[in-house]
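queue> pop job 88
queue> type: inverse folding (structure -> sequence)
queue> payload:
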């Protein structure tokens, strides 16, 4: 029986990894389509991110003359961190072998590790745009990571565990009730997700203006397969944050441990929830305006304050 359960867990983990790799570019393409429709523009094809990755992987990578090994290794490290983060989040099932060795704190650590390497790689070449983007990226990470931790701690108090699988199982099987703490945590998580994924109002993923860009400034010197890995990693990060939000605030539809039949139904449910979430993200970006970079600390400080209020509410209501 243990061998069968282990086989189910490995299959669920493999399916989760494949789903993350396949659905992450599709999610980015869906959000771009919805944004174009809402802005009355001609929408790009839904499969455009896949075509971009195929084109970049077939191009030769051009490196700067003084690029260090760190610059060459950063795309692979960032891509690996984002893939591992997507693997430990219960997207399809809570029966994930990797989730036993990683919890909410490790998830935030993976995002921080990827940020450190991409920032160091951006400064490695010595261009002004790379250094500017790295400083802005570290500023956002310095303010967003504590808020994300507070959000995860608010959810962990309900299940008395920092394991994402345990949190999802507890929330999915909890009695129907209103959690004021999760309402505050949900707003804070949305604000952190917008900042971490370089979305409006913090950053515009479609711009290349040197005075406003953050994510694009970090990858400006990359090309070929290195740029393809970084673009894929950006899609995986958006996918990971989307799945984390769905798992924390809409955990229904995720398969339980040792339930292979439920795993088959969890995939279309995940696609449906991601489609609705993509529309919501496009609407939010369309209704918002790009804020000045000096207003971003206030934006993320508000997210941290909301997350702390949610954490305190959870503690007070439990006593």
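queue> result:
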């Amino acid at each position: 029986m243990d061998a069968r359960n282990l086989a189910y867990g490995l299959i669920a983990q493999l399916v989760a990894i494949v789903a993350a790799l396949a659905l992450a570019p599709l999610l980015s393409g869906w959000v771009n389509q919805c944004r174009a429709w809402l802005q009355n523009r001609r929408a790009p094809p839904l499969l455009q991110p896949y075509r971009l990755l195929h084109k970049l992987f077939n191009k030769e990578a051009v490196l700067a003359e003084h690029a260090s090994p760190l610059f060459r290794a950063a795309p692979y490290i960032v891509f690996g961190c984002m893939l591992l983060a997507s693997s430990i989040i219960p997207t399809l099932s809570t029966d994930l072998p990797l989730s036993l060795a990683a919890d909410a704190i490790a998830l935030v650590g993976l995002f921080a590790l990827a940020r450190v390497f991409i920032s160091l790689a951006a400064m490695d070449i010595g261009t002004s745009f790379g250094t500017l983007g790295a400083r802005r990226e570290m500023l956002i990470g310095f303010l967003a990571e504590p808020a994300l931790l507070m959000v995860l701690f608010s959810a962990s108090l309900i299940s008395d565990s920092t394991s994402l699988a345990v949190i999802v199982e507890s929330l999915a099987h909890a009695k129907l009730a209103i959690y004021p703490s999760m309402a505050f945590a949900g707003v804070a998580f949305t604000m952190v997700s917008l900042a971490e994924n370089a979305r409006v109002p913090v950053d515009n993923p479609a711009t290349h203006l040197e005075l406003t860009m953050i994510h694009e400034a970090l990858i400006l010197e990359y090309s070929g397969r290195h740029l393809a890995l970084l673009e894929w990693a950006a899609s995986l990060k958006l996918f990971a944050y989307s799945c984390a939000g769905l798992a924390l605030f809409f955990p229904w539809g995720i398969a339980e441990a040792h339930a292979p039949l439920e795993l088959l139904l969890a995939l279309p449910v995940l696609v449906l929830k991601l489609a609705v979430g993509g529309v919501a993200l496009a609407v939010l970006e369309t209704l918002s305006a790009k804020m000045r970079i000096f207003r971003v600390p206030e934006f993320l400080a508000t997210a941290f304050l909301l997350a702390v209020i949610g954490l305190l509410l959870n503690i007070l209501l439990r006593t």
